[in-house]
Structure formats: structure tokens, C-alpha cells
Design brief:
This protein is α/β, with parallel strands linked by helices. It folds into two domains: 48 residues, DNA polymerase, domain 1, CATH 1.10.150; 283 residues, Alpha-Beta Barrel (TIM Barrel), CATH 3.20.20. It is built from eleven helices and twelve strands. The structure holds S-adenosyl-L-homocysteine (SAH). S-adenosyl-L-homocysteine (SAH) binds next to strand 8 and strand 10.
């Protein structure tokens, strides 16, 4: 269905691309060509699609809607930061002059892309650099898919996993996130199981996510990661101001419902802040809180950000926290700190460069 405001091509499947070509007075097979060039070849602009008639290419280049770089809907790279371990952070420009971060993380046999779902974020978690600048807007489907294609082009490898752990709160942009997942699976051949959606929790949103995922994707097989970060409501509210409106018991109850509807286990993320939530008593309370829950806990040692003076956890405290959970039969892993030399904490690159970007520099 193409009506009203024009849509960028990225995000469309074959039938929609065929229809778009027909509306442009072209034969439908051009849509299949566009599909190949957009997704398999990763073309940035339609004038690079050399199989299209030259006159049509010129006409398209001259009629790009305002606020886009091209009909494809692709972004432009503003900055690239490559860490010694290969972790590559890209700052991408949207057509309307905003910037977002996306990160490619190579490990053994994987290439994970950490994508943003919003420009900025309204959740204002205290330890998070993105939250300091508030929300500018949510991203559209093409802007999410573009991040995966941009990392693929820059790193010269096919992404195996996508995690919605970049800027933004995915559950506040649910429709575009699900549509982007449909596109990654349908057009780029990824499997839902290779995709993770991470949320800090939005009241009423989890059952809605399960239901909408079933409707849009036929099943909900992506991994849901819930940023828990504290074993009790008081401490959680201290770190996550929005938790005030969403008691931890209600959040866990919604997680249980999500597991019941989707049959998938949930993973909990827990940022370790030195002295604040990383002590044995916190680990014991966490184990009690999620006892009997089909889940996995991912411990994330805090990456310091400029605006806050939280401490990094000591290696001994991280090890002890992990051991306390393991002794209580909680499945647990510790996220290796990757790319620390490349403005690792989410949102840091953009904040450091925001002056330069606003001034139009690189
Ligand atoms: N809004 C979503 C997704 C974005 S944050 C959510 O909160 O889950 C993705 C993960 O990065 C979260 O688990 C978050 O806690 C973590 N994170 C944010 N700032 C961090 C920092 N300074 N150090 C380490 N992890 C951080």
C-alpha cells in the first residue's frame, strides 16, 4: 500500500517495491531489481543502481523528497570510531539533520549490531549517557534497517545478530521496531532468534509487545531483555526515575505473562555500579526476586560516563556477585567490556561529538 506521504524504499519487501515501480510507470521486474540492490548489494543511492534506465535515475535523483538523502532512505556516515578489538561505532546522520549511534561488535564467529530505536531517549536512567539529552524523536523503519546495512558495509561482513540496545527505548517505538524486525528477517534473511529487544520497562507494554509480535511476525521468537539493574523497588527508582510508575513486582508479573504467551525465556540485564548495587546482599536479593523464573541474568559492569560519578565495580565484586547467583542456581553471564577505547558507553560518542556535528563538522 503506497498512499499519502512518500515512503523511503528501505523497509519495503518485493511486492511493495514492485508496486512502487508500477506507480512510477515502470515494469514490476524493476522492483525485484531494486530489492536486490537495496538489500543484497546495499546500495546507498538509486543513481548507483546501474541496471535502471538512466533517464529514470536522473528523474528520481531530481525528485528526492525534502529531509531525505535519497529515495533509498539510507543515512550518511558522520563519524567512525574503531577500537583495538575491532568494535566499530558509527555516528550516522538522518535526513532531517539528527544523529544516531550504531555499533558493530565482532566476536569469534559473530558480528552483532547494536542498533538505536530512537534519537535520544526519554527514560533518563541516571547511568546512561543517552538519557542525559532527552528524546528528539523515534526512528522510522528505514532508519533502523539502515544501521544494520551501514555496519555491514563498513565492516565488510554479514551481521549475525542484532540487539536493540543502542539509543532509545524500543517499547516506545514498538510498531517501527517490529516492522524493522520483519524486514531484517524477510529481506536480509536473519532469524528472529538472532535478535534481542532490550527494555527498561514501560507500564502495560510487555503483554502488548507479545500480542503485537504474534500479529506482525506470526510468532515472538526474538529474545526479550529486561534492564532490571536493582533487586528492589527503592534502589531501582534511585537509578531509573521512570520505575516510580512501574513497581518491580508488576514488571516481573508482566515478564511472567510474556513468557507464558511467547514460550521464550526472558533475560535480565543488571548494570553493576561500584558499592551501590554490586554487593553480596544485592546478589542474594536478586536471586530471591527471580527465584523459579525461567531467565538468564547478564551482568554489565558500568562504563563511566562524563555526567555522573558512579564507580566501576571491582573485578572481585563482579566475580563474587556472579558466584552468589550461581550458587543459587541462577543462569548468569558477565558482559565483557568491549571497545572501551571507542567511547563505549551508549550515547557517549554522540555527546562528545554533538558540538562538531551541530557545527556541520566531522
Ligand atoms: N532502553 C533500553 C535499551 C537501551 S540501553 C534498555 O534500557 O534496556 C541498553 C543497555 O545498556 C541497558 O541494559 C543499559 O543499562 C546499558 N547501559 C546504559 N548505560 C550504560 C553504562 N554507562 N554502562 C554500562 N551499561 C550501560
Amino acid at each position: 500500500m503506497i498512499s499519502g506521504a512518500p515512503r523511503p524504499l528501505l523497509g519495503m519487501g518485493k511486492p511493495e517495491l514492485e508496486q512502487w515501480c508500477q506507480q512510477q510507470g515502470q515494469p514490476p521486474f524493476r522492483g525485484r531489481q531494486l530489492h536486490d540492490w537495496l538489500y543484497a548489494k546495499g546500495v546507498q543511492r538509486l543513481d548507483q543502481v546501474t541496471v535502471l534506465p538512466a533517464a529514470w535515475r536522473q528523474q528520481l535523483a531530481a525528485s528526492v523528497p525534502p529531509g531525505w538523502f535519497d529515495w533509498t532512505g539510507r543515512s550518511q556516515e558522520l563519524h567512525r570510531s574503531v577500537a583495538r578489538d575491532g568494535t566499530t561505532k558509527l555516528l550516522l546522520a538522518t535526513g532531517d539533520g539528527l544523529s544516531i549511534e550504531t555499533v558493530g561488535i565482532p566476536t569469534d564467529d559473530r558480528l552483532t549490531v547494536c542498533v538505536s530505536s530512537q534519537v535520544g531517549c526519554p527514560m533518563a536512567c541516571r547511568f546512561c549517557a543517552t538519557g542525559k539529552g532527552g528524546l528528539q524523536r523515534s526512528l522510522a523503519v528505514h532508519e533502523i534497517v539502515d544501521q544494520v546495512l551501514s555496519v555491514r558495509a563498513v565492516m565488510g561482513a554479514r551481521p549475525s545478530h542484532v540487539v536493540f540496545m543502542g539509543m532509545g527505548e524500543p517499547l516506545l517505538n514498538l510498531d517501527a521496531v517490529l516492522e524493522a524486525i520483519a524486514c531484517l528477517c524477510g529481506e536480509l534473511g536473519m532469524a528472529q532468534r538472532q535478535i534481542t529487544v532490550s527494555t527498561v520497562g514501560v507500564p502495560q507494554a510487555l503483554p502488548h509487545l507479545a500480542q503485537r509480535a504474534m500479529e506482525r511476525l506470526g510468532r515472538a521468537q526474538f529474545t526479550l531483555a529486561v534492564s532490571l539493574h536493582a533487586p528492589d523497588q527503592r534502589l531501582r527508582e534511585e537509578l531509573i526515575p521512570t520505575a516510580h510508575a512501574y513497581p518491580i513486582e508488576a514488571l516481573l508479573e508482566d515478564c511472567r505473562q510474556y513468557v507464558a504467551i511467547t514460550g521464550r525465556r526472558v533475560s535480565f540485564e543488571y548494570i553493576l555500579l561500584g558499592g551501590l548495587n554490586d554487593q553480596p546482599r544485592h546478589a542474594e536479593a536478586l536471586a530471591r526476586l527471580i527465584r523459579g523464573f525461567q531467565s538468564h541474568v547478564n551482568l554489565i559492569p558500568y562504563n563511566p560516563i562524563a555526567e555522573e560519578s558512579f564507580a566501576r565495580p571491582s573485578p572481585a565484586d563482579v566475580a563474587a556477585f556472579r558466584q552468589t547467583l550461581e550458587q543459587r542456581h541462577v543462569a548468569v553471564s558477565v558482559r565483557a567490556s568491549r571497545g572501551l577505547d571507542a567511547d563505549a558507553a551508549c550515547g557517549q560518542l554522540r555527546r562528545r561529538l554533538s558540538g562538531a556535528v551541530a557545527a556541520g563538522g566531522h
